[in-house]
Write a structure and sequence with these properties.
about 450 residues, mainly alpha, 17 helices, about 75% helix
């Protein structure tokens, strides 16, 4: 019913647009002389369409939000009070699913109780009435909005101002949704992290050098929850990835922007960006089956012990994965440097390489730094490659040739399987997630500082 209703509403909105457009053109007279109108005819059509669609969709959304609670009360009213008193929330949900199955005609596997049959019959009746009522109310709201907006269409009516105001409000609401979503994520992590710190001391967590959580059914914090091995493993793998991706990506960007022919650039840049579209699990398998054994074999040839699953393996493959983040963004920034800067340097006698090194790169440095930090954030938050290729060894050491574990891998491990989200063994995942958030926020702050500093110099 909802899909049908949405389809009818979209058709009405299209009709409303044409009605508003036709009336505005008739007011403009022959030749569609828009000079007689305050706004162009398209704005009048858009305004009528918005007046037709917005109230109807708001009613539909509110109706769908309120309807499940009403149906739940309808069902529970048919349940005997003695039976309802002995039910918890899970039992009520099971009852609702059984009644809905009976009302839909699919039925249940066992013999339903008399009150379930009565509740199903009442539910089916209310659903039918509610469907027709929703259809009538929503369509009436759409038609009323259409007629009111059509009546307001006049030569001096400020349709453009109204439409732009509605667009501004919509954009503000979308921005608010993004901000509120971010705040919701942060607050949820923060609240669960506080619950974890009621079991484990923050000092032991942030400065502990041993990670060995003990799983227990008593809800107590057993074992060690030291963050430093995981944080060091994350930074080690990310550092190796940046050592691979930043030089290669920047050199690719400089070549494509300054040296490559237009034909070569037209196919080389999309080909490089394909690397960003490969699923990370594919990179993980590639690291586990190809790169890890290759590094191990190469190490044996020169007398160095390199584990097939190590920080080097995970970091190298991750660096390959984030090359497009550096190269594509850096290329776009370099190409935005004004041509006058290049011409001025060349006119003073500098070579092309000197111009790139002393003029183009410094002018594009804020954007390049942003590309580097984006790549760093991507590396810090990567999971699947590290799960398969890093070895999952939460030990504090400085040897990149041995196995390590990272924060993201540990989050996966702590939340895998049957997990009690009231235990410290699961709540630690939220503390780890909050730590990653703070690290990413710190990178963004550093990026803003660098960008502002160099913008003052070159703009």
């Amino acid at each position: 019913m909802n899909l049908l209703l949405i389809g009818v509403l979209l058709a009405l909105i299209a009709i409303a647009y044409q009605i508003g457009l036709s009336k505005s053109r008739s007011l403009a007279g022959k030749g569609n002389n828009s000079a007689l109108l305050h706004s162009r005819p398209g704005y009048y059509g858009a305004l009528v369409a918005l007046w037709c669609g917005i109230p109807a969709f708001l009613i539909l959304i509110v109706w769908n939000l309120v309807e499940p609670n009403i149906l739940k009360h309808v069902v529970l009213d048919q349940v005997p009070a003695a039976t309802l008193a002995g039910m918890d929330q899970a039992s009520i949900e099971v009852l609702m699913n059984r009644v809905k199955a009976i009302a839909s005609g699919f039925g249940v596997t066992d013999q339903p109780a008399a009150y379930e049959l009565a509740a199903a019959a009442q539910l089916a009746k209310v659903q039918t009435i509610g469907s027709y009522a929703k259809l009538a109310v929503v369509l009436c709201a759409a038609i009323v909005g259409l007629l009111v907006a059509k009546k307001r269409v006049a030569e001096n009516f400020r349709a453009r101002n109204k439409v732009e105001k509605i667009i501004n409000i919509t954009l503000a609401l979308c921005s608010g949704v993004a901000i509120l979503t971010t705040l919701g994520i942060v607050m949820s992590m923060f609240s669960e992290a506080l619950r974890f710190f009621s079991f484990v001391s923050p000092i032991d967590f942030f400065f502990g050098t041993e990670w060995n959580p003990g799983f227990s059914t008593s809800g107590s914090a057993e074992g060690s929850y030291g963050l430093l091995p995981l944080l060091w493993g994350t930074l080690m793998v990310s550092g190796i990835a940046l050592l691979v991706s930043v030089p290669i990506g920047l050199m690719i960007a400089i070549y494509l922007a300054e040296y490559a022919s237009p034909m070569l650039r037209s196919w080389a840049k999309p080909a490089i960006e394909i690397l960003a579209g490969i699923p990370t699990i594919v990179y993980g398998v590639f690291a586990l089956m190809i790169i890890g054994p290759f590094f191990k074999m190469a190490g044996e040839m020169v007398g160095i012990n390199i584990n097939a699953t190590s920080a080097l393996t995970a970091g190298f493959v991750m660096g390959i994965m984030i090359i497009p983040f550096v190269s594509s963004l850096s290329d776009d920034i370099i190409t935005q440097v004004p041509r006058a800067l290049r011409d001025g340097s060349l006119g003073l006698g500098a070579t092309k390489s000197e111009t790139i090194r002393q003029v183009v790169i410094p002018a594009a440095l804020p954007g390049i730094i942003g590309a580097f930090l984006l790549a760093a954030s991507r590396a810090i938050g990567e999971t699947m490659i590290v799960v398969l290729a890093a070895g999952n060894s939460p030990l504090l050491h400085v040897n990149p040739l041995e196995a390590v574990s990272t924060v993201t891998v540990t989050i996966v491990n702590q939340l895998t399987g049957d997990t009690d989200f009231a235990s410290p063994q699961a709540l630690v995942a939220f503390a780890l997630g909050l730590t990653l958030f703070v690290i990413t926020l710190g990178l963004n702050i550093v990026a803003l500082y660098i960008v502002r500093k160099y913008r003052e110099q070159y703009e």
